[in-house]
Design a protein that fits this description.
The structure holds two protein chains of two kinds.
Chain A (H helix, E strand, L loop, with lengths): L4 E2 H13 L5 E5 L5 H9 L4 E3 L4 H13 L3 E7 H5 L3 H10 L7 E7 L17 H6 L5 E3 L4 H13 L4 E5 L3 E2 L14 E5 L4 E5 L3 H13 L5 E6 L7 H9 L3 E9 L5 H11 L5 E7 L10 H8 L3 H14 L3
Chain B lengths: L2 H18 L6 H4 L2 H9 L17 E4 L8 H8 L38 H15 L5 E6 L6 H12 L5 E7 L2 E2 L2 E2 H5 L4 H7 L3 E6 L3 H13 L6 E6 L22 H8 L6 H4 L1
Parallel strand pairs in B: 1-2, 2-3, 3-7, 6-7
Antiparallel strand pairs in B: 4-5
Helix pairs in contact in B: 1-3, 1-4, 1-10, 3-9, 5-6
Classes of the chains: A alpha/beta, B alpha/beta.
């Protein structure tokens, strides 16, 4: 098993490698770094720029560079690169890319609670909702560095605006160096006979833990890693859901506000699937409380223990 | 046709467009006429109407999109699209809307929401410079539009990166939607202000088309490591009695009878008398 590694390091390593041969790659940051970024900065100063603490301009300059034919990667902390500059994203990336060819990739670091002690300004529980609101934005949400690294090629090759939601912490890899098939948009990590937890990002790790806890209660709840929230194999996902009675969405974002849960709800509705569906996400309130990520997760409804209890309660009420 | 007569022609054609489509913003489109005439007919911009996105074109970003209805007759005249399209402005199926969008051949970016053009143009200018190419980027923004903070992020960026292929033109008509800019958020001395941000400034009477043209040529020629700005002092609603310098001119629509009277060929142009 490969060592734990930050998603951004795996992704940026691939950007750096590709920049040696592909002169069309341009990298921008809003004064946000990483050790790998230092290599990009020093080796490719003509295709790297730090725009400063100025996310609106980060997006606008990215749009301008993309119009000039560059493949653009813009990098910042997740809440800032999505919410601080949302109208720039909407107008100059989402709207403009419908009439002009543009390849812009927004790399947001700090999904959910991953900036644990920095408080709610640096945490991010709304991004999936607002980025999903733009119909032509591709949203990628890897659960480990192996997937994140692999996603670089997808970003490079597919035209259009994309948002990559990365965790800030170093996580144990799930894919053991063999990345999932990105084209399918999701991966069944564990087969479930009674149902599935469909999770994204860090929550995939939680889902696997919860699944084990449920197994001890003789419940077979599988795990689906939903790493592409916009382009996924609908036919195969339908097949998975047709064969199971219970589906639980699990996300490190506000529950019931248009994130992964809304995606699955719409998917079930569109495909006329009659599964029992229950959505689990961050409780809908803001808090300045300090704690470890585990403590904060249990308090806000997405820690393994509370998720386990929620699923158990839901299944009990359904008399499984 | 010389530039003065051309400006007169564009002014009349703009009124014609507005008569057909009263949803268009007339007053803010009349302050920028000479700027566009200088850019498009004065030999400032290198353009290719048959291939609007050809690599060797100069880029012209019209950030105050709503105030560029006067571009419709100009673009049609230059051959970006057939002149018959001018009769369909704001009609279902037309690509010429109340606010221009980049589905119009000749428009580079989205211009409906204010404060976006300069940042995107900075990215284009930066990309062109990093490619070692020589094209210029021109941007037209309004003085009211400068209230949007994103402009100032771009103003600092362009100066930091010595974007001397970037040319900003401010249509300084001094009025935004609800009144005089200076009574809302005043810019003080714009030349001094932008100069302090490291931009080289030119200032000109924005309705003296020959002066505008001369200044733009001079700006284009100068490549000394600083971004450049032309402050064109203009009159919102120029040439329309009741609209000129009226603080609410943005939302006042003059009566069609008045406009018809003004563009009647039997009359001596009211604008030439100004």
């Amino acid at each position: 098993m490969s060592n734990i590694k930050a998603m951004r390091d795996a992704f940026l390593e691939n950007v750096w490698k590709a920049m040696h041969n592909d002169r069309e790659i341009f990298f921008l940051t809003a004064d946000f770094g990483s050790p790998v970024l230092d290599k990009i900065r020093s080796q490719f100063p003509d295709r790297f720029v730090n725009v400063g603490i100025a996310e609106q301009n980060l997006i606008n300059v990215s749009a301008g560079l993309a119009l000039e034919g560059y493949k653009v990667f813009a990098y910042a902390i997740a809440p800032f690169i999505t919410m601080r500059c949302y109208e720039q994203i909407r107008v100059n990336l989402a709207l403009l890319s419908t009439v002009r060819k543009m390849n812009v990739n927004l790399i947001g670091v700090g999904a959910g609670y991953s900036y644990v002690v920095s408080g709610p300004t640096h945490q991010c529980y709304e991004d999936l909702t607002i980025m999903r609101a733009m119909p032509n934005f591709q949203i990628l949400s890897p659960a480990d560095h192996v997937t994140a690294g692999e996603m670089f090629n997808l970003c490079l090759d597919s035209i259009g605006p994309k948002y990559l939601r990365l965790d800030a912490q170093q996580l144990t890899p799930i894919y053991n160096n063999k990345a999932p098939n990105l084209k399918s948009g999701f991966e069944i990590l564990k087969i479930g006979l009674d149902g599935y937890i469909v999770a994204t990002g860090y929550m995939v790790h939680t889902a696997l833990k919860v699944s084990e806890m449920l197994e001890e209660k003789s419940l077979s709840i599988g795990v689906v890693d939903m790493f592409n929230l916009t382009n996924y194999d609908e036919e195969n996902l339908s097949k998975v859901f047709k064969e199971c009675g219970y589906i639980f969405s699990l996300e490190e974002g506000f529950s019931g506000c248009g994130g992964l849960d809304a995606l699955l709800f719409n998917f079930l509705s569109k495909n006329q699937l009659k599964a029992n569906f229950h959505n689990i996400g961050v409780e809908g309130r803001y808090s300045f409380e300090l704690g470890t990520r585990e403590i904060l997760h249990e308090k806000t409804g997405v820690g393994p223990k509370i998720v386990f209890s929620q699923i158990l309660a839901f299944l009990s009420s359904a008399n499984i | 046709m010389d530039l003065i007569k051309r400006s007169e022609w564009v002014w009349r054609e703009t009124l014609n467009v507005h008569l057909l489509a009263p949803e268009t913003r007339l007053a803010s489109s009349l302050s920028s006429i000479e700027i566009f005439v200088a850019l498009y007919y004065g030999g400032v911009l290198k353009i290719n109407p048959k291939n609007p996105y050809s690599d060797n074109r100069d880029r012209c970003i019209i950030s105050k999109g709503h105030g560029s209805i006067c571009m419709y007759p100009i673009l049609a005249d230059l051959g970006y699209f057939p002149k018959e399209e001018l009769k369909k402005v704001c009609q279902p199926g037309s690509f010429l809307g109340g606010i221009p969008d980049p589905i119009i051949p000749g428009y580079e970016t989205i211009n409906g929401s204010l404060g976006h053009g300069l940042g995107v143009a900075s990215g284009m200018a930066f990309g062109i410079a990093r490619k070692g190419a020589s094209q210029d980027v021109f941007v037209l923004a309004g003085d009211g539009e400068l209230h949007e903070g994103a402009n100032w992020e771009a103003i600092m960026f362009a100066s930091q990166h010595c974007l001397d292929n970037l040319n900003l033109i401010i249509d300084n008509n001094k009025i935004s939607m609800l009144g005089f800019t200076n009574e809302i958020i005043g810019h003080g001395d714009l030349t001094k202000r932008l100069g302090s941000f490291g931009w080289k400034c030119w200032e000109v009477d924005g309705h003296d088309v020959l002066a505008v043209c001369e200044a733009l040529h001079e700006m284009k020629k100068e490549r000394n490591g600083t971004p450049k700005v032309l402050i064109a002092n203009t009159i919102k609603g120029r040439g329309i009695p009741g609209l000129e310098n009226q603080p609410l001119s943005h939302i006042i629509n003059p009566k069609p009878d008045l406009l018809n009277q003004l563009i009647s060929p039997r009359l001596i142009s009211p604008r030439l008398k100004l």
